[in-house]
Design a protein that fits this description.
nine-stranded mixed beta sheet
Length: about 350
């Protein structure tokens, strides 16, 4: 069985979804929405798309063709309009993150999903990689015991151009949202208290703050410190960032997309002093996944539409990630400690 989807937005990040759908055995295109004629023409040529199925608006596309779902790859400020149009038509939505460009718009999408009962799923693809799944398995296995603290460091300097460089908090809203969602995923918990500060270095090519430090205490009691820059001038981390989990019986790290563990030995290496310096650091093999990232999420969406399986990243769950993001923005803008939900 296959389902047919309409992809709204086929430039930029839309390339990832054009490739994912064309590689899928279960999902195919019914049509597309693209307002830019040059982008439409380029993608027709690049991907062999049927130009007669490219429309200017989703409403126009839905009135002309039948679809089992839409993939929303528009800039965040358009997510509310596109997603609600689809849900009001009874068509499930697979939406790029963030859920929406504002918290108000995000709540409007969740309210519409609850009102209509139509699936809305957010593509938090960083969860669905061998790296993230390996770390999650290690933490859930309880071999390392309780988590005492987490430290995350991220540094990249991409020149994307476009809407990202005009956003008020581009690092926090557009990039670090992946890392904040991974915190929720790894810890099985939501944030409780947040203190954060953001700034824009003199050389930054972003209008808004491209650097931030965030201190979060989760409902589970685990403190997490995040240091990030999206205008780094060198010595970059990977997109997944570097992580250090301080655990009861050892340390788990992600560094340069490699997972490593050092276990606490309790060996007394001098009188009265127990240390782990002689314990070997072990490389942790990554789990194998048949599908990952966009391919995984597309297949999960397919199974949700055809079999009613409940995906993990529904709008109703993802509202916690987007609220986390905007609480961080609030903390940066006010200098106050934010108690989440207030």
């Amino acid at each position: 069985m296959t389902i047919k989807v309409i992809q709204v937005g086929i430039g930029g990040m839309g390339n990832a979804w054009l490739g994912a759908v064309q590689a899928s055995d279960h999902v195919e295109f019914a049509g597309f929405v693209e307002i830019n004629d040059d982008i439409a023409a380029e993608q027709v040529n690049t991907y062999g798309l049927d130009g007669s199925t490219i429309y200017k608006t989703l409403a126009e596309a839905l009135s002309a063709i039948e679809a089992d779902g839409i993939i929303n790859v528009t800039p965040p400020q358009f997510h509310r309009e596109v997603s609600i149009t689809a849900m009001e038509a009874g068509v499930p939505v697979l939406s790029e993150k963030p859920l929406a460009g504002t918290l108000e718009d995000s709540h409007a999408i969740v309210d519409k999903a609850n009102e209509t009962g139509v699936l809305h799923m957010v593509t938090q693809n960083y969860r669905y990689t061998p790296l993230a799944q390996t770390v999650k398995r290690m933490l859930d296995g309880n071999d390392l015991g309780a988590i005492g603290a987490v430290n995350v460091h991220f540094a990249k300097g991409p020149h994307f151009g476009g809407f990202r460089e005009e956003m008020p908090h581009p690092l926090i809203i557009d990039m670090a949202i992946h890392h904040f969602d991974m915190m929720r995923f790894f810890l099985d918990s939501n944030p409780a208290r947040i203190f954060a500060t953001s700034w824009n270095p003199p050389w930054s090519w972003y209008r808004g703050d491209a650097s931030a430090t965030v201190h979060t205490t989760f409902e589970s009691g685990v403190p997490v410190t995040y240091n990030g820059s999206w205008c780094s001038q060198g010595m970059e981390t990977t997109w997944n960032a570097n992580w250090r989990f301080e655990c009861e019986r050892g340390i788990l790290t992600i560094e340069d997309d490699a997972v490593c563990v050092q276990r606490y030995t309790g060996v007394e290496d001098r009188p009265g002093y127990r240390h782990v310096s002689n314990a070997e650091q072990e490389a942790v093999p990554l789990v194998s996944m048949a599908r990952e990232a966009q391919d995984y999420l597309l297949h999960e969406f397919y199974e949700a539409v055809t079999m009613g399986n409940a995906p993990a990243t529904t709008a109703q769950d993802n509202i916690h990630t987007i609220r986390f993001v905007f609480d961080i923005v609030n903390a940066c803008d006010t200098g106050q400690i934010i108690t989440t939900g207030e």
